[in-house]
From TrEMBL:
UniProt xrefs under Pfam families: RINT1_TIP1
PANTHER family associated with the record: RAD50-INTERACTING PROTEIN 1, RAD50-INTERACTING PROTEIN 1 RINT-1
Family annotation (InterPro entries): EXOC6PINT-1/Sec15/Tip20_C_dom2, RINT1_Tip20
Annotated protein name in UniProt: RAD50-interacting protein 1
One biological process term in Gene Ontology: regulation of ER to Golgi vesicle-mediated transport
Top-level taxon in the UniProt lineage: Eukaryota
A GO cellular-component term linked to this record: Dsl1/NZR complex
Organism for this UniProt entry: Monodon monoceros
Family: Belongs to the RINT1 family.
PROSITE patterns linked to this entry: RINT1_TIP20
Signal peptide positions (record): none
């Protein structure tokens, strides 16, 4: 242990013994070592054991030096050194753990590499599969692309058609509004159409753009002209001056009869004051109409309104005020050539439009009296009744024309309308041919029958008889008919509607025939089992406790019953009567030829056939007539022959063989109830019997 003085001297002596080069070497050596800095002092970690004393000496010299008072720092230095030692130990500990972490990281990296390689292999396999699938699906993709292109093309076409449909619908609406004189709504619709035209300007469909623009311009011009005419002729309010004239006549009647007429009577004048006053006002009306009509000829709505008002004026003038038809009246103005031809044209136009409307109505084929049995006997569909009402209205409008030639021109218009309506019914009927028993087909048939019936009734009307006489005179002058036809018209054997009635009756017969053929085919299909019945081996009536219907006849009778009930509900009474009678006629021949003549019958078979016919088939029609067996004459008489007892059958056969074609043969047939079948037919039926006694022949 060093003394305090020695401690102080030794370092000092050593310091004195070191030169500057030695100090420099120590400094350089300490710089080469790995140092851990604590505060501002370097500590060498890699100093060899041989250099440690030198380092300590240098450190002591630096920290304490020759000053003994610096020894007070020793505790602090020891503390600092202890902290440095602790830090160095921590560093060494951490340094020993780093290799383990690195090894663990390398292991994780290796595993990640293996996973990555596995994923790359999967990716390569998946890539190959996708490429293979794409190659396989390529034709499908191409086909699907083509189909998508087609669909897109169709969608474009559909959109194009929708635009056209919308344009046409708007045009129809404008037309309807103008026909009903609803100008504000027509203008609003035109504005909407113009807005659509603006929206379409960006479209590349040039034809659609042109169509839209042309339609807008068309209706714009018509609407502008209509509004212009209404401004030019504001005095035509709806019918003012006609009503004013009637009011003047009515207001002055009492004055003229009580004040003026007595004066005229006193002076012996035959003038009727009231009629002369009315005739004077009529002259004013005729003058006014003559000025107004040329301005209204080419506006269908206004002209039609004018005609309506004139006709109403004429009706009230004659019926209420007793104006003579021999005096000048408005009908003479309407009968002038230009005005009359325009009237005919307008009547035809509006009639055709109404026909379009009535046939396109949802209730066109429904009877408005369907719930009233007594009224709905003819089951007339709404379109047919509306059409005949239209014809009746036209008749009322022209029946007061002053000349027969003008009336005949209107009659020709009516006949043309009837023919046009018949053609339209035929077109609708052809669409329903596959469902000839359906509701619409039956409604068309009812319509045809109704129109034909009404026209036949009109033919006996005095007004149309007068027209027939007038037509006879015209045809005789023009030599347009043969002598036979003229004779028929003159003798009233034919009528002015005969041509139309004949066409309608032919259509009715064709439609009924189609229905009968349809039901008859169904009945024949249902009778296939009945045709194959074993008539030759059936038990006799005595061997059965109770006779019952042949099971093979059930489908036949059920089909017949169902169709009769269906058509009875859908056809009017007269049509259904014709239908079932036509069906019975075919059914009678079919059963007689295909079932009876095609088989042989023993006693039981003949009895069974008789039971099936008389107790089951014939009664199906007993609701429609009192003696339905009279409509099955072939079947009825065949059953009689087949069911004659053996003695009567033998006797009848002998009579027929011995008196062929003689009156006794006819008497013998009549005696057993045979009136329809010929003698040869009866002999054939007798030969179909198998229950003849064995006579040894």
């Amino acid at each position: 242990m060093l003394l305090a003085g020695d401690f102080g001297k030794a370092p000092a002596t050593r310091c004195c013994s070191e030169n500057g080069d030695q100090r420099k070497n120590i400094k350089e050596k300490s710089d080469i070592n790995i140092a851990a800095v604590v505060g501002n002092q370097p500590v060498c970690e890699s100093t060899d054991n041989g250099d440690l004393p030198s380092y300590v000496a240098v450190f002591i010299e630096k920290e304490v030096g020759n000053d003994l008072k610096s020894l007070k720092k020793l505790d602090k230095l020891i503390e600092q050194m202890t902290e440095k030692q602790t830090c160095i130990l921590k560093v060494l500990t951490v340094s020993s753990e780093i290799p383990k972490r690195i090894q663990s990281a390398l292991k994780n990296a290796e595993e990640s590499k293996q996973f990555l390689n596995h994923f790359l292999e999967q990716e390569s396999h998946l890539f190959s599969s996708i490429n293979s699938h794409l190659l396989t699906a390529q034709p499908w993709i191409e086909d699907l692309g083509a189909m998508i292109n087609q669909i897109e093309e169709i969608e474009r076409h559909l959109a194009y058609l929708k635009w056209i449909s919308q344009i046409e619908e708007l045009s129809d609406n404008i037309q309807q509004y103008l026909m009903t004189n609803n100008v504000p709504e027509a203008a609003s619709t035109l504005v909407f159409m113009a807005e659509l035209d603006i929206k379409l300007q960006e479209s590349s469909c040039t034809h659609l753009l042109g169509f839209m623009r042309a339609t807008v311009k068309f209706w714009h011009k018509i609407l502008k002209d209509k509004l212009t005419r209404q401004e030019i002729y504001p005095y035509f309010m709806p019918e003012w001056y006609l009503a004013q004239v009637l009011m003047w006549i009515g207001n002055h009647t009492q004055f003229l009869d009580e004040k003026i007429q007595p004066i005229l009577d006193k002076v012996g004048s035959s003038v009727n004051a009231r009629l002369e006053f009315s005739r004077g006002l009529m002259m004013l009306v005729l003058e006014k109409l003559a000025a107004d009509i040329p301005c209204l000829l080419y506006d269908d709505s206004l002209f039609c309104h004018l005609v309506d008002e004139v006709l109403l004026f004429e009706r009230e003038l004659h019926s209420v005020h007793g104006y003579p038809s021999t005096f000048a009246n408005c009908m003479h103005i309407l009968s002038e050539e230009t005005c009359f031809q325009r009237w005919l044209t307008v009547e035809r136009k509006f009639a055709l439009q109404k026909m379009d409307s009535m046939l396109s109505s949802e209730a066109a084929w429904i009877s408005q009296y369907k719930d009233i049995t007594d009224v709905d006997e003819m089951k007339v569909p709404d379109c047919a009744e509306t059409f005949m009402t239209l014809l009746l209205v036209i008749t009322d409008r022209y029946k007061n024309l002053p000349t027969a030639s003008r009336k005949l021109q209107f009659l020709e218009l009516q006949k043309d309308l009837v023919d046009d309506f018949r053609i339209r019914l035929t077109q609708v009927m052809k669409e329903e041919t596959r469902a000839s028993l359906g509701f619409r087909y039956c409604a068309i048939l009812n319509a045809v029958n109704y129109i034909s019936t009404v026209l036949a009734d009109w033919a006996d009307n005095v007004f149309f008889l007068q027209l027939q006489q007038a037509a006879l005179e015209v045809f005789a002058e023009n030599n347009t008919l043969s002598k036979l036809q003229l004779g028929q018209l003159a003798s009233m054997e034919s009528s002015v509607f005969d041509d139309m009635i004949n066409l309608l009756e032919r259509l009715k017969h064709d439609m009924l025939t189609r229905q009968v053929d349809h039901v008859f085919r169904e009945v024949k299909d249902a009778a296939k089992l009945y045709k194959k019945e074993r008539w030759l081996s059936l038990p006799s009536q005595s061997e059965q406790a109770v006779m019952s219907l042949s099971s093979s006849a059930c489908p036949l009778l059920l089909t017949l019953r169902d169709r009769l009930l269906q058509l009875e509900q859908q056809l009017c009474f007269s049509l259904f009567k014709i239908f079932w009678q036509m069906l019975v006629e075919k059914l009678d021949i079919y059963i007689y030829q295909e079932i009876i003549l095609a088989n042989h019958f023993n006693e039981g078979g003949a009895a069974q056939l008789h039971f099936d016919m008389t107790r089951n088939l014939f009664p199906l029609f007993s609701h429609y007539c009192k003696r339905p067996e009279n409509y099955f004459k072939h079947v009825k008489e065949a059953c009689i022959v087949l069911n004659l007892n053996t003695g009567c059958a033998l006797l009848l056969r002998d009579v027929l063989q011995s008196t062929s074609g003689q009156p006794p043969a006819t008497a013998a047939l009549n005696e057993v109830g045979i009136y329809k079948l010929a003698q040869q037919d009866v002999e054939i039926l007798l030969n179909l019997r198998t229950n003849w006694p064995n006579t040894g022949k």
